[in-house]
Amino acid sequence: MSIFSGERRAERAAIRDARSGAGPTREGVEPGPNPGAVAKFGLFGEVLTIGLMMALVALPVVTLPIALAAGIRHIRRFVAAEDSRASFFWADVRTGLLRSLALGVPAALLAAVLAVDILLAGSGALPGGQIVGLVGWAGLLVLAVALLIAAGEWEPELGWRAAVRAVPQVAFGDAVGTLYLAATAVFVGVVTWMLGPLLIAGLGCAALAVAAVPERRIPERRIR
Q: Which residue stretches belong to region Disordered (predicted)?
């Protein structure tokens, strides 16, 4: 009896591994949706790892767009149980780094202007400071969401111009998804404000959110 029980357990484990992408595909067993996301602890570890790599790339600030784009592509490869070696992340960074500055530099300057407006509004030096402050925070949120969407649309073959052009269509075509990304941006900002090193986890979670939000519209492909 124990022999048969052991065989059944081994059979069930093999089927789970095949469906998750962790083991060889077996005849009659189809891999499940997003097999790389089945191992929850493994996905959590990958989010932290890619968050660290993204933080390193984003240190100059103006390189944040390519850090986001490369991290999102890495997470997509991981949840699809494709080859997700770190070398592919760095290859994406090298491919898109220089051209991403055309987006990263203006975005950083705009964020700096909005941050100064918020500080001045809080100091009481500006008339109508509360309104100015609200406009500044709203502007930062819109900028953050636009960066997340553009980074999610970036492909090495298409480049950054196509990614930026796709932002309005993606944002208005999936209003609920845009709200999710706005919540993600707020989450990253809050945890970073609470404790600076949490930016690493925040960036990884942002990459996962951008990869996951479009998938929710197709239930059979949803990340589980």
A: 1-33
